[in-house]
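Hi V.,

Quick status before I head out on leave. The structure for the redesign project is tokenized and pasted below; the design run finished overnight.
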């Protein structure tokens, strides 16, 4: 398998992911990707966008929503399915689990998104842009990316 990795992914943040790719014999090509962070070909119709945490996702859905919405709209216009893989979620395994999440930033910023608000936004993005939401521990990110990409290669 060959996986294209967006050049804007920070090497330190994905060191474990790249090590897992190497363990599985995956060929890695670093290239700027217009949408997402991982795909099997530049024109593949399934893309994974990695988020380091629910906190990063909150930022993408609130303060940085314009940029994120443009990326999702581009993917949808191309017929791409975008999967957002969120790491470090403290036991969250499904979208429904997000509703019970407690955002630690609420202590410093009472206007930060809480779990129910984030859950509702994620439902809107799933309906509007076709986003598929997945969750994993950071130690499993590489394995989960390979599994998801392999699963969707059969669909293309």
């Amino acid at each position: 398998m060959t996986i294209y990795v967006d050049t804007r992914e920070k090497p330190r943040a994905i060191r474990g992911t790249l090590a897992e790719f190497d363990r599985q014999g995956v060929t890695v090509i670093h290239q700027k990707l217009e949408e997402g962070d991982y795909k099997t070909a530049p024109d593949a119709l399934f893309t994974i966008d990695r988020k380091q945490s629910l906190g990063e996702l909150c930022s993408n859905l609130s303060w940085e929503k314009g940029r994120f919405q443009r990326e999702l709209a581009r993917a949808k216009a191309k017929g791409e399915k975008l999967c957002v893989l969120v790491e470090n979620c403290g036991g969250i395994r499904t979208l429904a689990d997000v509703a019970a999440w407690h955002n630690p930033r609420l202590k410093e910023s009472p206007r930060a998104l809480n779990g129910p608000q984030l859950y509702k936004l994620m439902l809107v993005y799933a309906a509007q842009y076709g986003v598929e939401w997945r969750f994993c521990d950071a130690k499993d990110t590489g394995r989960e990316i390979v599994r998801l990409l392999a699963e969707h290669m059969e669909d293309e």
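Above is the designed sequence. The domain at 2-153 is CATH 3.40.50.10130 (Rossmann fold).

G. will cover questions while I'm gone.

Best,
W.
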